[in-house]
Amino acid sequence: MMLRRHSPLITVIIFAQFVRLITCQDPAGYILPSWGTASTTQFQIGPEFGSGTSCGASAWPKGINAGNPATAAGPGFLYAAINQLAFGANPSVPNGGGPGAACGTCYSLTPMDRNNIPLPAQAMTFMIIDECPAAQDLQRGPGMHCNQCSPGSTNMNGMQWHFDIATDAMNQQQYDQFYQGVTNGANWNAVSFNMTSCSPVVNPDPPLKEWGCLHGCHNNDAVPVCQGVPGL
Fold it and tell me: Between the chain's N and C termini, which has fewer beta carbons within 10 Å?
């Protein structure tokens, strides 16, 4: 049997990516990615404003009173939650939750079709203002989406990263653009993502609880990523 050998260039690239991943892992095991591929789901963020999202968002920005609109009937903002490994806090443990370093970060998400071909005309930039917790993942069903706990671990879609899209913040035009040709019911099996700058138009800072954070936030390293998460 002939053994395949990587060229020196490929070996260097693989090693560099491995080192980059490890050096980005903080003492509690959290990793805030700059780019990659992820899966998506949908949720409504409006009902969370009363107690505050994981980043502490407490209301729609710009004084808008949108109530709890139905999907794609929102004020036209682009917000999302990200999986626990990336978010930077563990709400399963007392004093382990709250804002993480992902709060206020913006990512450009580009949907990918069934052949994994990017659809750049449908790309949109979302601000992270919430967490998709590993412990509550079964409620997002069916299956596990945000249960990744370590480098290389993946969810039911084979992805290390996951974005939960706040569709009640989107207006109809935004929803139709982003979800045109969606591959898995109402969700994308794969989107490519890149960390980018936020837009004050579609990613404005929402009002915060006194404990909230959207800029210069840090991970809560009180406990490891998935310590105390039931079933993990």
Answer: N
